[in-house]
Design goal:
Blueprint: E1 2-8, E2 12-19, E3 22-29, H1 37-50, E4 59-64, H2 80-83, E5 90-94, E6 98-100, E7 108-109, H3 119-125, H4 136-144, E8 155-159, H5 161-164, H6 170-180, E9 184-190, H7 196-205, E10 216-223, E11 228-234, E12 237-243, E13 248-252, E14 260-265, E15 269-274, E16 281-285, H8 289-294, H9 298-305
């Protein structure tokens, strides 16, 4: 069986080709705002030709959040319902026009301004230019999501053009996800290849047996609007933190090993576990929802991250 899932985003086409249970991925730059259906069909046909395949012998399954043309006579839609029903983690998809996540999170169109709606696409087109830290557009993106959400699971996976774009500094991603999630303890992962929608598309439309998806470990996140007592212990030292409302703390794991966390929180309960130091670090955000939205942007966010423990100054993730 030959099957091709095509995932079209605001600036790329992600292809996942399955042949007799073997999978192969390819990524191409593609900008739907100024390219046609014929351009996309030519790209796909050329790719299949490079694989010594004819289009007629391949089952083609297109999905997209923003592309509304039929491809090879097939209507394009997105897997919002499928993404919204999982049993082990919360998947959040965020591009420059749409926001999707688990069933207790509303699917929404962000309705951004003309200036901002192509921000992520432009970052990809002009990726040779150094990021300027002009935060106006990214702050607008953040403010466009005007609710805070409570996932059912502590494991949260971030996908979409915003989170997979390596040109956008991780500080922006961390600030945004902290604004999105309500009080709780979370393990944050990244779908850096935007691969999960394609895998889900194949799984739902074929008999292929797919392995469990592996995501990149990003960071631990604790959000709370109440007092927190935190103890961090390793074999050689211990660190005690008493965080008041609106204070923050970031610990970069660097070469930490066997790091144990004990936590008491008035609004998130008690927690004790051995931290996986393959994550980049632990971010504790005590800002209230209102103060997060009043935050002037990532520059002030960076200062806040470094404000608690001068011995562990914030370093870029």
């Amino acid at each position: 069986m030959k099957i091709l899932s095509i995932f079209i985003t605001s600036n790329k086409v992600f292809l996942l080709l399955g042949i007799n249970g073997n999978l192969k991925t390819e990524i191409f730059s593609f900008y739907p705002y100024f390219q046609t259906k014929e351009d996309l069909e030519f790209l796909v046909t050329s790719y299949l030709k490079s694989q010594a395949l004819k289009r007629e012998e391949v089952l083609i399954l297109p999905i997209s959040t923003i592309y509304n043309f039929s491809i090879f006579g097939k209507k394009v839609n997105f897997l919002s319902l499928e993404l919204n029903n999982k049993s082990d983690f919360c998947y959040i998809y965020f591009d420059n026009l749409n926001f999707y996540s688990t069933k207790n999170i509303a699917t929404s169109s962000l309705g951004l301004s003309t200036r901002s709606d192509n921000f992520i696409s432009n970052r990809s087109v002009f990726s040779a230019n150094k990021f300027t830290n002009d935060i106006e557009e990214i702050v607008f993106l953040s403010k466009s999501i005007n609710e805070t959400y409570k996932p059912e699971f502590k494991k949260v996976v971030l996908g979409g053009d915003f989170f997979s774009n390596i040109e956008i500094p991780n500080e922006f991603k961390l600030n945004l996800i902290s604004e999105l999630l309500a009080q709780g303890f979370y393990e944050i992962y990244l779908d850096t290849k935007n691969e999960y929608p394609n895998l889900l598309n194949l799984k739902n439309n074929s008999s292929l047996i797919l392995k469990n998806t592996e995501f990149e470990k990003f960071t631990y996140l604790i959000t709370s609007e109440k007092y927190l007592e935190i103890m961090l212990l390793n074999p050689n030292s211990q660190k005690y933190l008493n965080l008041k409302p609106n204070e923050t703390f970031f610990l970069h794991f660097k070469n930490e090993k066997n790091l144990h966390l004990k936590l008491k929180g008035k609004d998130i309960g008690n927690l004790e576990l051995l931290l996986d130091t393959e994550f980049s670090g632990l971010f504790i955000d005590g800002r209230s929802y209102i103060n997060k939205k009043k935050n002037l942007g990532v520059e002030s966010f960076r200062k806040v991250l470094a404000s608690i423990d001068k011995d562990n100054d914030y370093a870029s993730l």
